[in-house]
């Protein structure tokens, strides 16, 4: 089985794929000081609970936008699963051209979304990922990654509003249920946060489509995708496993590392 590790700024997702389907998907908060042994205790317990064994893992792939987390995730694969993981980077074979000024600076999560999105849905395609940042990534009809947009994530926006305005409370993220015009502070904040973000989604998406010059499929991923899909017709499909599928497809395209490694380094 393939062990897939998607390390984001907020959460790290671990998943097992048996070649036909996902056998388990588990999340843990991103904490760069967490050791490989701590990951192992947590993950092996979940495997056992799901009727799986670590000996079933024969390959691993890691995608991370948190470089400080990579060392212990790699040690987890080496020491506890006895596999050398493939590390997602722009230097691998993606099967498409990365049309950016500096391909190495593109977050691998964005490339993974583009890879899986085009493979599963075709193009031209826009992928909206609701993560710590909200990203809009564009893939053309041939599957080439052509760039995108990075906006502050909704959680960051909510926290910034609370921190910068002394009299505004910290509120949870949810759909505004009443009229747009709030009759109290909380209602006004909920309306502004939700409908303001819907406006951001629709505004950026419409400008991207106009710039591309032809209709595009729009796929959303990330934990908050269902919430915002309720408020707009721009989003056509929600795919919560899109980034994981990107890692799975990337691992299938590239040879699994087999050479002995110097386990005294943190490369």
TrEMBL record:
Metal-binding among keywords: yes
InterPro entries given in the database record: ATPase_NBD (IPR043129), Type_III_PanK (IPR004619)
Enzyme Commission number: 2.7.1.33
Required co-factors: K(+); NH4(+)
Gene Ontology biological-process entries: coenzyme A biosynthetic process
Free-text remark on how the cofactor is bound: A monovalent cation. Ammonium or potassium.
Group of enzyme by EC: transferase
Superkingdom of this protein's organism: Bacteria
Binding site for K(+): 129
Pathway(s) served: Cofactor biosynthesis; coenzyme A biosynthesis; CoA from (R)-pantothenate: step 1/5
Residue numbers annotated as active site: 109
Catalytic activity: (R)-pantothenate + ATP = (R)-4'-phosphopantothenate + ADP + H(+)
Known partners and oligomeric status: Homodimer.
Family recorded in the similarity comment: Belongs to the type III pantothenate kinase family.
Protein name as catalogued: Type III pantothenate kinase
Organism: Lichenicoccus roseus
Gene: coaX
